[in-house]
Amino acid sequence: MTLRLPLALLVGAIVAFASAAAPAGDPDGFWHIVIGRDLLRDGLARTDTFSWTVPGVAVLTDQWLGQLGLGLAYETAGWRGVVVLRALAGGAAVALTAFAALTERSARPLVGVLATLPALLLMRIVWTERPQLLAFALFAALVIVIRAAWRGDRRAPWAGVPLLMFWANLHSSYVLGLVLLVASAVALRRRDTVVAAALAVGATLLTPAWAATLAVPSGHFLAPPRYIQEWAVPDLLTPAGLLVALTLAAVMVTALLGAPKPREALILLPVTFISLTAVRHAPFLALAAAPYLAAHGPSALHGLAEIMRLRVPVPASVPAPRSLGALTLALAAVVLAGVPVIAPAGPDLRTYPVAALPALDRGAGLFNEYDWGGFLIFHAPATKVFIDGRLSPYVPHVVNDYTTIIEAHPGWRETIARRGVTQLLVRPGRAVAVRARELGWREAAAGPGFVVLDVPR
Amino acid sequence: MSKWSQPFVPLPFAVVRATHILAAFFGSVAASLAVTEPAADPDLFWHLASGAWMLEHGRLLDHDVFSFTRSGEPYSVGQWLGQLALASAFRAGGWQGVEVLRATLIAVATLFLSRAVLRVQPHPGWAALPIVAAVLISRLAWGDRPQLFTIALFPVFFDLLLRARLEERARTLVLLPPLALLWANLHGAFPLGLALLLAFTVEGHAVRHPLRWRFTATLAACAIATQVNPAATRALGWAVSYASAPGRHVVEERPTDLLAPAGIVFGAMLLGALGASLVLGRHRIAARVGPPLLWTGLIVPFALLGIAIQRQLPYAAYVLAPFVGAAIPAALGRARTAAPHVPGPVASAIVGVLIAMPLATAALAAPAEPDLRAYPVAAVRELRPMRGPLLNEYDWGGYLIYAAPEHPVFIDGRGAALFVPGVLDDWVRAVEVRPGYIQVLERYDIGLVLLRPHRPLVAALREGGWHLVAEEGGSWVLLARP
């Protein structure tokens, strides 16, 4: 047994184990799970049922399959099931990336593992209970497919068809995969790859929204909602940004000093650009760069040595003992078995207004913090939300009114009256909380991170 | 001798390289465009006021005289000579003097940027693309501030270093220490020049270039020369501290958005460089663009700096431009071209026209007044007879220093040097109506508020009974304590 697959599984298992130790708690995870649960019970909902500001308005269905998975995990094993799914998805993304890297440098597994390190570390920022995480695993799989096609594997391009179809029903980031697959097929100039890519394009239309699914990524890509943290421009001076910077530096150094293959540009150029446009896209670069760095990083080091006229001894390749592969595989299995054992049974709700729930009115009228919307949808289903992380149904009118009220801009009280807000659930430091308290509005409840204020009638 | 080295071969007396004329053409066009734009930068006004204060008092301005929140506190923005130059230009020619100074510096920047690009890509068409791209990106930093001197001096340093490295012309390096001394007193970003020199020096030693010790000596001389400024070694410390923790409250200090216009152009340059490198590999890079290790040492750190802080984007673009200009055509399989030569008299005539063009543009089209549409001009008239400490918009502070000196400001564009963190935090707390905002207003005894109408504080104070003195549409509101 070669070491490639066992080692990739071990790396992925370690990531899954580490991820499983962290409890659930992502603000958007809540509403994804509720949608998934409702889907299991009532089928796919195409209109909003959670808010009182946009009831009955059409909602996106682009992540229905991922939501179904999350709902199923929750129904099966509660929060522990959700965490296990999240851990396995994150682990799969890293394992597939490690596999791609080890495939490029099978004689030197250490190089492959080192090349996977940025992906391993950067994936930490997307350890969230969202379909997006599953999309990263599919992206890593697509990179394997494309690179296999580059190596002449004629079956590989066909694997892209079901993969893209699955992805298009899971998350809107499939468009990136589609671009890479089509570009690669065109560059290869082989009839079978072009036909497979064309079929993949057709397969991505097999979603509940048909071609309208394309509107989601294009809208977000052209005008990202920068006011949402994960859509912000990556800041290279933060720890995660530093990892992006190091990855980009490694990619560029390898290109300038190594002897890479021109076809690497087909993956690296679009992925580099996408990764630098928003924080949530940053891991794509590390996932795509791992096999490239494994394949060409050593040539860059040799190039540097050549330029500096240094003589670097090339260590002889020592074949791994046959038993090492089996041992590694066993170790990976043991680590993976620990994932459900250590997965927390409950979510981390420290940043949510748990103590506010009894004070909330049922039905319409609550004005809530944007990132508490999902929590309320899950934990207070009788109370309809003003806004939540689904964003698209709320753009632009509800979002504009939300900003006016939460930041107490001129006209905030008129907006409250026009919307019919009867209760505020916000952080105490918000301008609207400060102003409402100054105006003597009744405080229905308060805690360390929240305040519930009744709007005078 | 390295593969790329091109020992200098003097041309016959009566012949000039066409690339020199082309570089002059780009400089002339850029200057002609730059001189037609009216002054409008928010920080220009306090730079002008600082320069005027120094001219008037005959000494350096080393303490605050414009605000009431930090009045008398020592500070330095490390740009005294730049401020003096701006104030002198204003005294000599009014707003048009400022515009001519700006156009001159843009001309220098573009001329030397073009020289750098044309050194590795003599083909006018291929060279024009990255030159135009870099000039468009540098447009971000065309505000009338001492920063313009860095916009000009960076390409000068870069081109002279490339000339020394690629053509092995050691004497070129002699120019750098005096330029470094000047730079360190004109603007605080002078460490960018040292960083450039460091990249050339390290690469020189790595490849054992014949001029490596000359580069080392020049680096040492420049490092010493930059200490000859009023802040001495602290100036370098400020620059390092700025690069590691830029003031994200200022838009230009935030990360570069690759979906914004300048970001798209930069993204295209960066991806062009990456794509071309992937196609070429180091051997063909060495053959067509120059030493791969040098370009690695230049492109990687400056590109990352530009992505991290949008204000630094022009320098990243300057460094990328020659590489992009030479590498992309090489990756596309285009053959290298040689620069044609032009007879001396013809060259002189063309250069004469190129010099005359921006001068004529300046005489005919340089605006005589600044563009004040973004400032509360009418509010100043209302403000003048009033008394009381004023809470003002951050980016109107400079204008108020200039237009309403009788009203010391709460805050202005000297942010990081003077107001961070204390005053800026208080300003944010007050303007955004955070808990304790009333206490901030009381602590500073605020009697007047001049803000944009959408500010939460405006709504809070109007509801709280403050008098509306005047307002103008969606532009500004002036409130007075009852």
Compose a concise summary of this entry:
The complex is a heterodimer of chains A (457) and B (482). By secondary structure, chain A is mainly alpha-helical. In chain A, 59% of the residues lie in helices and 4% in strands.
Please provide a written account of the structure:
The complex is a heterodimer of chains A (457) and B (482). With 457 residues, chain A is mainly alpha-helical. Helices cover 59% and strands 4% of the residues of chain A. Among the domains of chain A are: 1-109 and 320-345, no CATH class; 354-454, no CATH class. Chain A starts with a helix and ends with a strand. With 482 residues, chain B is mostly helical. Chain B has helices at residues 18-34, 44-57, 80-120, 124-138, 147-167, 176-186, 191-206, 212-225, 233-244, 261-288, 292-308, 313-331, 344-365, 377-383, 397-403, 415-418, 422-431, 437-443, 456-463; strands at 15-17, 341-343, 390-392, 448-451, 467-472, 476-480. At the A-B interface, α10, α11, α12 and α17 of A face α10, α11 and α19 of B.
Ranges of chain A where pLDDT stays below 50 over 5 or more residues in a row are none
Strand content of chain B: under 5%
Bin the helical content of chain A: 55-70%
Q: How do the strands of the widest beta sheet of chain A line up side by side?
A: 1-2-4-3
For the CA atoms, what is the radius of gyration of chain A? 24 Å
CA radius of gyration of chain B is: 25 Å
**SSE order of chain A:** HHHHHHHHHHHHHEHHHEHEE
Low-confidence stretches of chain B: 1-5
Oligomer description? heterodimer
Main sheet record of chain B: 4 strands, mixed
Number of strands of chain A: 4
Helix segment tally of chain A = 17
Structural class of chain B: mainly alpha
- Which pair of protein chains has the largest interface, and what are the residue counts? A-B, 49 and 52 residues
Largest sheet of chain A: 4 strands, mixed
Nearest-integer average pLDDT of chain A: 93
Shape of chain B: elongated
Q: DSSP strand (E) fraction of chain A?
A: under 5%
How many helices of chain B does DSSP assign? Answer: 19
